[in-house]
């Protein structure tokens, strides 16, 4: 990966997290202000020892920290990561968090998570409204599949048509991999030569699939030219948009995968391409690049399905998509704890792993899709009943509302310390795994 690609991924990650953190903290800030609770600080990123810049407006100091691990609002009279024991030792002031009714404190604490959930729903809705949602229906995969080595290891052959997973019909071809992983599929049904066969998914298959981070089958497509790239080998030939490429040096290559595989056998060589143009069959010579490439982009010959939404239709559709993404994330977490196929050290990662999710070139659709998904993750993780997280504060507040007894401030201080130790431990563990994987590449 080039330095430019790394910087683009990092920039997308920082922008995405900045948006999520600022809006999350606004979710705490706004209800605190509505309930006349003093907010002493509002920071994007953490500021131990110093901040990049800061200014004060009214009673609140706004600033940008130098440590990009999140952000925070410091609310007067609240036991948080600042551990301001001096303030807590004083009698409660009317403007402090601890002086407010429990129901107001609860609304302030769930505000951040609420904003993140609503943000995810809103982003998904706007993407659906503007772009719609496109899938490759399984019924459109009329030429069957191309199996890689992992797919062939369980008996899938080129040309097979995947019919069902554990006898559940496949609706969308592009959902096969996630379905296999999340539902820990045991059998795959394929159609071959007019017969339906059931192939067993052996132990270790899903683990290998996760490690490779690539599908085990692809849809077979004829190679129809859509675009000839600038400064490419194809630009110096008579190849045209709409041409179908079907052979290399006389070797029949009916589908895109076969064609590109054959090309790579002839790097820096002159080859003869079989080309179908309308009803005419042509032979065109071209000298390939050192990578064995022509420099062309293929057209999608398979029939895609795009669901379009009006503005008002997109709102419930965005909500539904957000709920489905949350369910998928919970199922992923469950697999880490209960599945023999999913190893924690291979599936957990820190900021570097998150950055890898973003594309190497700036793509706003991918950016907003990932930002919405990260917003769901941030909301879910924050509502977990762990001290130092919003969920920990919510747990203690619910206890107070139900029992009518408020936990002592000394207990809350100890709980805060325990929670911070847990969080920093998880942070070090996740990012340490990223570093370890990076080091392993050199050995």
Mind explaining what this structure looks like?
The protein is an alpha+beta fold and 443 residues long. The chain has three domains: 3-129 and 368-440, no CATH class; 138-219, PDZ domain (Pdz3 Domain, Roll), CATH 2.30.42.10; 223-298, Pdz3 Domain (Roll), CATH 2.30.42. Helix content is 45%, strand content 22%. It is built from 13 helices and 16 strands. The protein has helices at 3-34, 85-88, 102-131, 149-153, 176-182, 205-212, 256-263, 311-338, 344-347, 351-357, 364-383, 390-403, 409-440, and strands at residues 39-57, 60-75, 133-135, 145-147, 161-165, 168-169, 187-192, 195-200, 217-219, 223-228, 244-248, 251-252, 270-277, 280-287, 296-298, 305-307. Strands 10, 11, 12, 13, 14 and 15 form a six-stranded antiparallel sheet that branches. Strands 6-5-7-8 form a four-stranded antiparallel sheet, covered by helices on one side. It has a two-stranded antiparallel ribbon with strand order 1-2. Helix 1 (3-34) packs across helix 11 (364-383) and helix 3 packs across helix 12. The radius of gyration is 27 Å and the shape is elongated. The mean pLDDT is 89.
Overall pLDDT confidence:
89
Structural class: alpha+beta
Low-confidence stretches: none
Please tell me what the overall shape is. Answer: elongated
Count the E strands.
16
Report the end-to-end length measured between terminal Cα atoms. 18 Å
Discrete helix count: 13
InterPro entries: PDZ, PDZ_sf, Pept_M50_Zn, Peptidase_M50
Main location: membrane
Family: Belongs to the peptidase M50B family.
Protein name: Zinc metalloprotease
């Amino acid at each position: 990966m080039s330095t430019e690609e790394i910087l683009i991924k990092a920039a997308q990650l920082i922008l995405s997290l900045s948006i999520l953190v600022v809006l999350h903290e606004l979710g705490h800030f706004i209800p605190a202000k509505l309930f006349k609770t003093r907010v002493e600080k509002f920071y994007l990123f953490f500021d131990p020892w110093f901040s990049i810049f800061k200014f004060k407006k009214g009673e609140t100091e706004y600033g940008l920290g130098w440590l990009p691990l999140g952000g925070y609002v410091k609310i007067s009279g609240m036991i948080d990561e600042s551990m301001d024991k001096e303030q807590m030792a004083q009698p409660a002031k009317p403007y402090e968090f601890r002086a407010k009714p429990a129901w107001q404190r609860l609304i302030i604490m769930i505000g951040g998570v609420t904003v993140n959930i609503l943000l995810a729903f809103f982003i998904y809705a706007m993407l659906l409204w503007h772009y719609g949602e496109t899938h490759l229906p399984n019924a459109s995969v009329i030429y069957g599949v191309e199996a890689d080595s992992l797919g062939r290891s369980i008996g899938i052959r080129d040309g097979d048509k995947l019919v069902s997973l554990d006898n559940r019909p496949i609706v969308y071809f592009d959902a096969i991999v996630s379905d296999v992983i999340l539902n820990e599929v045991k059998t795959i049904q394929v159609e071959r030569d007019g017969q339906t066969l059931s192939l067993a998914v052996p132990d270790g298959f899903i683990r290998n699939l996760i490690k490779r981070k690539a599908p085990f089958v692809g849809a077979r497509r004829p190679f129809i030219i859509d675009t000839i790239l600038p400064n490419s080998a194809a630009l110096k030939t008579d190849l045209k948009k709409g041409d179908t490429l079907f052979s290399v040096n006389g070797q029949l290559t009916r589908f895109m995968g076969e064609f590109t595989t054959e090309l790579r056998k002839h790097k820096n060589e002159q080859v003869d391409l079989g080309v179908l143009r309308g009803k005419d069959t042509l032979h065109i010579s071209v000298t390939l690049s050192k990578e064995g490439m022509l420099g062309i982009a293929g057209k999608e010959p398979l029939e895609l399905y795009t669901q379009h939404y009006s503005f008002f239709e997109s709102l419930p559709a965005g909500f539904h998509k957000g709920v489905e993404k949350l369910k998928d994330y919970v199922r992923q977490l469950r697999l880490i704890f209960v599945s023999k196929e999913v190893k924690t050290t291979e599936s957990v990662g820190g900021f570097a792993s998150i950055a890898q999710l973003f594309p190497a070139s700036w793509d706003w659709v991918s950016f907003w899709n990932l930002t919405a998904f990260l917003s769901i993750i941030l909301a879910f993780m924050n509502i977990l009943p762990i001290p130092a997280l919003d969920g920990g504060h919510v747990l203690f507040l619910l206890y107070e509302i139900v029992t009518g007894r408020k936990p002592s401030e000394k207990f809350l201080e100890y709980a805060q310390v325990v929670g911070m130790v847990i969080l920093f431990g998880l942070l070090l563990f996740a990012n340490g795994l990223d570093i370890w994987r990076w080091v392993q590449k050199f050995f």
